[in-house]
Amino acid sequence: MPQKKIAIIFLLLNSIFLNYTFAQKINEVDKIVAKYPKSFATTEKLAERIEEDFNSDYDKARAIYSWIAFNIRYDYNAFLNPPRTQGFSYSTEAEKQRKIKELNDRLWQKAFSSKKAVCEGFTALYQHLAELTGLKSEIIRGDSKISLRDIGRKNTSSNHAWNIVLIDRKWRLIDVTWGQGYFDNSKGRMVNDFSPVYFDTDPDYFFAKHFPDSGSYLGDRLDKDAFLNGPLIYNKTIENDFKIKSPTTGIIEAKYGDKIDVEIKNVKKSDQVLYLNKRNQPVLIKNAKEKRGGLEFQIPYDNNIGEYVTVFVNTNSIVSFKVIPK
């Protein structure tokens, strides 16, 4: 089949698949919250509604996540034109905490009233609603990995924020900013696309895309090099538990004629697996082998492979690697 026809079919299947899976990924808590008003008079009224409808801390935490993701939009204009950062002075730890609270209060109030925010507003609103419903939550700031250019970066930077919330004596990782949607480079705008995968995310997946400023999580040091040099994974990778077993790094050194060995757990031979060449044309993987609960295959490194190679499973991007010629 000509490559052009494959590309058209690929895009069509992708559109159909996205529409179908959206209905599948809404759980019972989300269905209830989806019927809530888009606006409440106060955050206290919203918290009261959540407490009326849900008993467990887990469901309350999920309801807060869902309502924010459904109703607060990412303010891309504010991201492009951030207000000037204003520092503050303090003489005691108590004064420092009071001023931080005042800052967070302004952030959640603006997000709640305007229905738009950047990550600081999302996290402040989540923390505030968690406190109103009797949950303990904290805001964590750090780095994020979102694009091909992030593979092999030399340093981390503080450019993002997320929450942790204590449920059943266990801290859970939450990124409601990413739960509400994503930026579509091809369209040059934000796309509203609810994703549940950033609620109570598996730490292995979460820290492949996030790195806290502290460099640690619950007292354990995280591997900074693994974050910077690891492959770029996507929402569907997390949703389907597609663990990337090989290559173990996001940076592959190869010469023409080499074959890049790839192993992904929980992928079946019946799944359609392909990669994009440097002209963004899909190339179907052939002769893949099922092994150890996953799929093994090879990608030939030739002049059709560009600086990056992205693997797709059933039309969804799963993992990207950076290829450096030897």
Account of the protein in words:
This is Transglutaminase. Residues 111-178 form the Transglutaminase-like domain. InterPro entries: CAP/Cytokinesis_protein (IPR052557), Papain-like_cys_pep_sf (IPR038765), Transglutaminase-like (IPR002931). Pfam families: Transglut_core. The chain has 326 residues and is α+β, with helices and mostly antiparallel strands. The chain folds into two domains: 25-230, C8orf32 fold (Roll), CATH 3.10.620; 244-325, Sandwich (Immunoglobulin-like), CATH 2.60.40. It is 36% helix and 28% strand. The protein has helices at residues 3-24, 28-33, 43-53, 57-71, 76-80, 93-114, 119-132, 176-179, 203-209, 224-229, 235-239; strands spanning 73-74, 116-117, 136-144, 160-167, 170-174, 181-184, 189-192, 210-212, 216-217, 220-221, 232-233, 244-246, 251-254, 259-265, 273-276, 282-284, 289-291, 294-300, 308-313, 316-325. The radius of gyration is 21 Å and the shape is globular.
Outline:
It holds the Pfam family Transglut_core. The protein is an alpha+beta fold. The protein has helices at 3-24, 28-33, 43-53, 57-71, 76-80, 93-114, 119-132, 176-179, 203-209, 224-229, 235-239; strands at residues 73-74, 116-117, 136-144, 160-167, 170-174, 181-184, 189-192, 210-212, 216-217, 220-221, 232-233, 244-246, 251-254, 259-265, 273-276, 282-284, 289-291, 294-300, 308-313, 316-325.
